[in-house]
Amino acid sequence: MTQRPLTTIGFDADDTLWQNEQFYRLTEQQFIDLLSDHADSDRVSARLLEAEKRNLRHYGFGIKGFTLSMIETAIEITEGHVPATVIAEILDIGRDLLAHPVETLPHVRQTLEALSGNYLLVLITKGDLFDQERKLAQSGLGDLFDAVEIVSDKNASTYRRIFSKVGDGPERAMMIGNSLKSDIVPALAAGSYGVFVPHELTWAFEHVEEPTEAPRFRKIGHLGELASVIEGLS
Questions:
Q1: What pTM value is reported for the model?
Q2: What total of structural domains would you count in the chain?
């Protein structure tokens, strides 16, 4: 009896299932405005990105680490003279980001509902545990997943472990996401299919070249096109 080529499908969360980066951009603009008397916007943005990259190994991905990086950047930009009132405002906008309502992207629910029951669906996302659990609960999508994995980082070993635990191994699995660096390239390295769904806003840290030569790489315009990709594997 011929085995199905695909039994397990993994989905990224932020900017794949729901909006995320646009709220970070709005928060960053608020932060830039707070420091407008001390530096121009390009300098503040560049220093903030440097702080975020530097702090990933300490704080991981997520809003709390982003907030701490904003505070660190404010201290650096003002050479240690940032007013306590500005620190308080940074904390406020960080809390606002943590409480922002979830906005699911087009075609998400219909796609998940169509796949649920026919494939093992697993949510694989980076970020703060409490915040990702909150967003999943508010999205109303939780019952459509067979498993949820909130991880500190995504690499080939992450996908091998998860797809072996939840499904039949990475070779019979597919990962869907908007980040080539986190969702697609390491999933391909693990032996899975990788379906890239670009989002108009993607954090600069996640930018890498498309692996167009990889035989298991696919690219779609939105999740509504996923069904035809899966059908093409049969």
A1: 0.85
A2: 2
